[in-house]
TrEMBL record:
The keyword Acetylation does not apply. Residues 1-19 form the signal peptide. Residues 36-116 form the YtkA-like domain. Keywords: Signal. This is FixH family protein. Coiled coil: none annotated. It comes from the Bacteria. Pfam families: YtkA.
Amino acid sequence: MGRNIFLLCACFFFFTACGTPPPAPEEELTQQQQTIGDLTIAFEGVAVPRINTSQQFVITLTDETGQPRDGADVYIDMTMPAMPMGINRPIAEPEGEGRYVAYSAYTMEGDWEMIVVVRLGDDEYRAVFPVVAVE
């Protein structure tokens, strides 16, 4: 009896170890940028984002001379043009050196528009970045 339990446990641990998936490779990032007036807005995120998975978005702001722009209010208006959904507007927190970070998730696969809204003083800038989310 003891030998059978031992063999059963050994088989269980063997098959459990064999069935463990390998660690996921680091996800590839992509960066897009647009210049609007005197401000360049760069948007960085996962190249092929998965739905219902927390995503980090990095927005970098620079002026016409390439210097970082701090002191802005930044948020992302995540929209899906083909399927209007509820409001999803993650606010980006400043990290210094013109860098702002926000987190959210895509809730459906398909074509998304990430509308980065930047308020600097009395000026408002909007840049639209296309993203395709997969299941």
